[in-house]
Hints:
The chain has 579 residues and is mainly α. The chain contains 20 helices and 6 strands. The chain has a two-stranded antiparallel ribbon. Strands 3-4 form a two-stranded antiparallel ribbon. Strand 5 (527-529) and strand 6 (536-538) form a beta hairpin.
Amino acid sequence: MASQQSSPDQPGAPLIRSPSTSTLGPASSQSSIRDSSSTSSTRRTAQLLRTISFVSAILSSMGAGSITVFSLYGPRFQSQLHFSQFEINGIASAMSISMYIPVPLLGYICDRVGPSPLSLLAVVLLGTGYGLAAALYHKGEIASSAGERNNHGIVPYMVLAFVLIGVGTVAMYLSSITTCAKNFGKGKHRGLMLVAPIASFGLSGMVVSQIGSRLLYTRLPDGSKGEVNVFHFFLFLAILLVVVGLSGAFALRIVDEDELIDQAVEELERSGFLEGSTLLSRGRSERSYGATDSAVEDPSDEAMLDSGIDGEDEDNSKFKKTYLLNAETRRFLSDRTMWWFALGFWLIIGPGEAFLNNLGTVIGTLYSPGSNDNVTSAATHVSIVAITSTVARLLSGSLSDLLSPSPHSSHYQAGLDSSLPSLRRKLSVSRIALILAAGIILSIGTMVLATGFVQDHGDRFWIVSSLVGAGYGAVFSLTPIIVTMIWGVENFGTNFGIIAVFPAIGSTMWGLTYSAVYQMGAKKPPSMTDGADDDVFCYGEQCYSSTFWAMTFSIWIGCGMILWTWKGRDGWTKRGVVI
């Protein structure tokens, strides 16, 4: 630097100088100020984009959460359209399956092209789905008012409508949580930032159910307020979700994703995960990453390499991102602990899903035929579930950040190098302990219902709805946090999407089980019959008790599987995974 300052004419001298002096001091200072200003401006812009994306993710997640209020209008399918319990559960099961089966594909797309296309897809599917459901319900209502009691012909079309709703919902939800996971995956409060949209999903149930029951209700012949007007409610949701989805298509962005991928590549090669990856090492050497050039072993890899490093920077970044995400997906699928964890998640969350879908009809079984004294409403308990679920999601995310140990980075952690540092606190509680506690809380709720403790005492049903809501919410929020902690954030959409398929199986299985038990119980006295053989309503413990006992045991088995994944042979503890 001294020689440069005494010889301003030498080639290494900067082009920008102070006109008042031949030294480089002032020019260097001005350059530093400009660089600092540019860096500060870039950081502020990135922070602004993250904030806008976060707000949009919260709104998108709240919009997607409107699907959780099925119990608010599900009983109206039975009372107004005269659908059987099997048909109602068929609609609910189709909705649940469509929410989970496409998640791996949608997550794969979200990881590779970003969240905006998913939000646009949600606009089309949710607008069409709720619009079709509104038209079908209105048609069935007109037929019923004209004395026609056979509306079974519209059931397949209603199933189609809720399939569209299910796929649209998961597209909107996945775009929001993936945005938060990647934008805030490196912060010390990453658990809470990821839980925020998940909690908004649960809170939406309370908000939407109250709008439906308090503003969009039917008028009884005496002028008093009746139940939710399903036709108007569906139209309201169609318009609302189109607006939310369009805003998400413009606002949801992954900030500094190239930097995230570069850091992941470097760290995972250091840990041995990408050891021997000639594609990335040669590609990086062209950009001064300092890796040693080596021969490419596979001809197809050579073609990929040529297209990756001989093009522009953007092409190289896309190549590197695709290679890394594909490698992480293969590693994720070959990890046996992932399958144990997913099975445990399935056995725990399935009963919770089935309870939420059938909450309205379960309440109907608690009261004797013709009883109208202090009858609790489905809207009340949908709100209770939403509130307790939201509180549990926020609490579990906060405890995860405050009490649980954290790995040294936000990238893939498979115990490849257990010597890497981690952030451990004086009072340390594993996230697995938290999710097991949530599962136990959920099982207490199903067990209280199974014992018949609330039968003929609907005023006690809040115990069940609050326990199930809290346990369900905590499990659903801790699961994606655990996925990011162990398998990283860069491939989060795909990884979480694969695990999220399993609840669809559990929801369908338990929904059908509940329907079968309900229908058999309706054939035994006492039952409530409304003028036709297919309009039979069940009353008493025989309608649900055996189903919820089985659900309780299922949750306990699921907790055992997760415990084995954590502490068992070749489990996460033995592999040095920080969780």
